[in-house]
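Section 5.1 Outputs to date
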Amino acid sequence: MHGEPVPEEAVKGQRFSTMTGNATGKLMLAPVEPFKQRGECGAWVSDFLPHISEIVDDVCFIKGMHTEAVNHAPAISFLLSGSQIPGRPTLGSWMTYGLGSETEVLPAFVVMTSISKGTSCGQIFYDFYWSSGFLPSKYQGVKFRGSADPVLYLNNPNGISREMRREWLDGVSALNELKLKDYGDPEIATRISQYEMAFKMQASVPELTDIDGEPKHILDMYGPSVHEPGSFAYNCLLARRLVERGVRTVQLMHAGWDQHNSLTTELYNQCRDTDQPSAALVRDLAQRGLLEDTLVIWGGEFGRTPFIQGDIKDRVRWGRDHHPYAFTVWMAGGGIKPGITYGASDELGIHAVENPVHVHDLQATILNQMGIDHERLTFKFQGRQFRLTDIHGKVVHDIIT
């Protein structure tokens, strides 16, 4: 159907972004790169992703995902916090609140961001993507910068020894304890604990980010850009090192997945930068015996339209718009069945029609695999009990081992 109008009955009454508006008459666009069946499980994966193609037998593809938002920021917020409107706690904050931390020398919730070089995408990573919302701020995600110095202000100024820093912190802590006793404000307790965490991170972060001790075959597995701080490959390697050290939640975000007119150019860069490191992370966790206790989730906030955005005669400018009604995420490890494909869209890729999975269902399933009942992990705010899945969501038991 490449070049043919999308059937009107398939898009009638559906809401798309303002860039598409009314989808009637839009032309169908064939895959830019072909899909092939891979591995023993026969999962269909595009030639855009040759390395992920090699780990399909360790992966569960959820192909009936659907969401409600049609633009990036609301959709990302919905995926991570259960609400399109910023202000609620995100997944990592909920898990830290519910489960606590396994490490005393690193944050329980770490975030790292990256972007492909030369991309024209204007996506912005807002702080509310890792916000603790109305939970105490000690559950906030800690963002590591994309540089050799990932956390600012950890180094002591010239002339300040570690012993002097310890004495200074003890004095400040004593003053804060007095204020905490007077006012009972949990944010004062957060400040005390975060000062202590920063002191411990002065020793733990330099050791964490020193990857020179990694074997060459491990570095090669993640790809050549693993040596560039701030690259997706570097962040994937750091994610494994963080998991080893007891960090509860690691959130990697890679910008640029917005090919409105660059499917034949920038999408190649995006896939090149993320394909090999993503597969390497799964393999690396597996070979260290960590994958069975670590849930890897790979995906985005929505999909892309099966019809074209732009002129079909101008291949260099082919694009696809935002599409919330059917998209795919994959998961590995953490008690998820490997080597299966769950759910499907219709034959045009427009609607999830077989075993549809709503965003709240995905959230409920993730929490379930972490040992949390999504209906019971709540926090009272402004007179009601809030939870990540709001008032929806069911665990997708069919994909659990």
